């Protein structure tokens, strides 16, 4: 995992938007398409908002989510709704390129997770998975000490007892995250400093799920200075 520290939250968001814009351009030029699993969370949504006025060929970008709150499609809690309002409704991305994880339409959560796994399989290799990180070092909806963290395989799983509301969620497994070519963790704020250090320390996945994230080609932890405060100098 390579660590890149930014001056502050605004610089983290702006420079990550630059980095992502450049990556999308490269991927579209070389392979004709770019597939990105985006994240909820305040930093993840700010990053999406920052992309709205960038020069990106949205016709050739496919978007999905590394996790989703299992709530109604129009709930303000839904990551996909927040992403639409911040970015996807503002740019010319084809509707079929926006591949949401299932919303709660009354389908049992396990069946929704199976539909999510089928969606994941249909997407093929994901070029980039974006992740936020909680102060408890959770990523996606994989929380410390919960069975989902250790669930094997490349799949979307049901999470029924998230310690952070809402309790019902869908989440990529660690295997699904790590099947991506690239994984970027985007982390801001002093309340994340301990978790960032723990994730970098080689702590067990049950303790620090964030430490297990590893892209096939690239793994970046992108932080602001506050979140990086407890990292060793040589780890920055
Ligand atoms: O699923 C959730 O309830 C949140 O979205 C959560 O996983 C979030 O991504 C991280 O806690 C980082 O949040 P911030 O970006 O706000 O720091």
Automatic annotation (TrEMBL):
Catalytic activity: 6-phospho-D-glucono-1,5-lactone + H2O = 6-phospho-D-gluconate + H(+)
Catalytic EC class: hydrolase
UniProt-listed GO biological process terms: carbohydrate metabolic process; pentose-phosphate shunt
Database matches in Pfam families: Glucosamine_iso
Entry keywords, A to Z: Hydrolase
Keyword Hydrolase appears in the UniProt entry: yes
Gene3D superfamilies in UniProt: 3.40.50.1360
Membrane-spanning parts: none
EC number: 3.1.1.31
Cross-referenced InterPro entries: 6-phosphogluconolactonase_DevB, 6PGL, Glc/Gal-6P_isomerase, NagB/RpiA_transferase-like
Sequence ranges assigned to domain Glucosamine/galactosamine-6-phosphate isomerase in this UniProt record: 8-219
GO molecular function: 6-phosphogluconolactonase activity
Entries under SUPFAM superfamilies matching the protein: NagB/RpiA/CoA transferase-like
Pathway linked to the protein: Carbohydrate degradation; pentose phosphate pathway; D-ribulose 5-phosphate from D-glucose 6-phosphate (oxidative stage): step 2/3
Function statement: Hydrolysis of 6-phosphogluconolactone to 6-phosphogluconate.
Family to which the UniProt record says this protein belongs: Belongs to the glucosamine/galactosamine-6-phosphate isomerase family. 6-phosphogluconolactonase subfamily.
Protein name: 6-phosphogluconolactonase
Organism: Agrococcus baldri
UniProt gene name: pgl
């Amino acid at each position: 995992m390579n660590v890149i520290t930014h001056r502050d939250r605004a610089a983290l968001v702006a420079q990550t938007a630059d980095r992502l814009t450049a990556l999308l351009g490269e991927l579209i030029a070389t392979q004709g398409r770019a597939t990105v699993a985006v994240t909820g969370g305040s930093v993840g949504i700010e990053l999406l908002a920052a992309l709205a006025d960038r020069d990106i060929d949205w016709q050739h970008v496919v978007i999905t989510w590394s996790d989703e709150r299992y709530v109604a499609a129009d709930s303000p809690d839904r990551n996909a709704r927040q992403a639409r309002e911040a970015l996807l409704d503002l740019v010319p991305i084809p509707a079929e390129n926006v591949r949401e994880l299932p919303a709660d339409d009354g389908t049992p959560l396990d069946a929704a997770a199976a539909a999510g796994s089928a969606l994941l399989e249909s997407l093929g290799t994901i070029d980039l998975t974006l992740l936020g990180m909680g102060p408890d070092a959770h990523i996606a909806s994989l929380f410390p000490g919960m069975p989902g963290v250790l669930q094997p395989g490349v799949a979307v799983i049901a999470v029924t007892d998230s310690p952070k509301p809402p309790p019902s969620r869908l989440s990529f497994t660690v295997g699904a995250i790590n099947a991506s070519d690239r994984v970027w963790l985007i982390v801001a704020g002093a309340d994340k400093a301990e978790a960032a250090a723990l994730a970098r320390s080689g702590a067990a996945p049950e303790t620090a799920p964030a430490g297990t994230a590893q892209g096939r080609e690239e793994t970046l932890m992108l932080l602001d200075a506050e979140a990086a405060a407890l990292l060793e100098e040589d780890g920055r």
